[in-house]
Amino acid sequence: MGELRLVELSASTIVAVNNLSLKPGQEQFLAPISYAVAGTVANPATAWQRVVLDDDQVVGFVSANFDVDAPQDYFRSVLWRINVDADDQGRGVGRFAVAKLLEEARDRGMEHVDVIYEAGEGGPQAFFERVGFTPVGETEYGEVIAEIRL
Ligand SMILES: CC(C)(COP(=O)(O)OP(=O)(O)OC[C@H]1O[C@@H](n2cnc3c(N)ncnc32)[C@H](O)[C@@H]1OP(=O)(O)O)[C@@H](O)C(=O)NCCC(=O)NCCS
Question: How many of the other CB atoms lie within 10 Å of CB of 16?
């Protein structure tokens, strides 16, 4: 692996981001119901979206929402989506993206970063716990709310 970099989502990366692949069985974990519901009212001005490059190759995508006015505390500083290309999973790309997100949240004066995910075989739970998220609750749809205090 070369040097990992984080860049803004742009016309030159968006096609590759949309084509990031998943391993079989991972599709069902991509978008918990809570995100779909909240997404209908998400303000583009509060969204933070970044692409992970390995040298010049797109290997991952991470997005978050920073909105101190969000009704639920866990949506005020929240990892919205993280996706590492199937061929590049297990090499530290996801950990790198989360570290950068935490940096961003700190810079914005946030006190926590949350994530919402569905527990289950083949899902991202082990990854989120490994990079420091601790389960703190459940959404009304039964998804796990996990948090890193900054
Ligand atoms: C979840 C995901 C982003 C992880 O990215 P990744 O680049 O493979 O993760 P990393 O290589 O940075 O792993 C970081 C740590 O988590 C651990 N980890 C990652 N996936 C794991 C798994 N499925 N089971 C157990 N541990 C796991 C790694 O072993 C590593 O531990 P270490 O640093 O202590 O050695 C990636 O698997 C993915 O894109 N999944 C599909 C999309 C998805 O479910 N996204 C989350 C919902 S939005």
Answer: 15
Pocket test for ligand 1, best of 127, 129, 133, 139 (most atoms within 8 A of CB): 127
Residue 69 CA, ligand 1 centroid: distance in Å: 30
**Mean pLDDT of each 10-residue bin along the chain, 150 residues long:** 91 93 92 72 79 96 92 92 96 98 97 96 96 96 96
The torsion angles phi and psi of 92, rounded to 5 degrees, stand at 95, 5
pLDDT at 45: 84
Residues in contact with ligand 1 (CB, 6 Å cut-off):
22, 26, 29-30, 81-84, 89-95, 117, 124, 126-127, 130-131
Which of 19, 22, 102, 130 gets mutated to test ligand 1 (max ligand atoms within 8 A of its CB)? 130
- Average pLDDT score over the chain: 92
Closest C-alpha among 101, 97, 95, 126 to residue 114: 101
Backbone torsions φ then ψ of 55, nearest 5 degrees: 55, -115
What residue spans define the domains of the chain?
A: 4-149
pLDDT of residue 43: 67
| Domain at 4-149: CATH code | 3.40.630.30
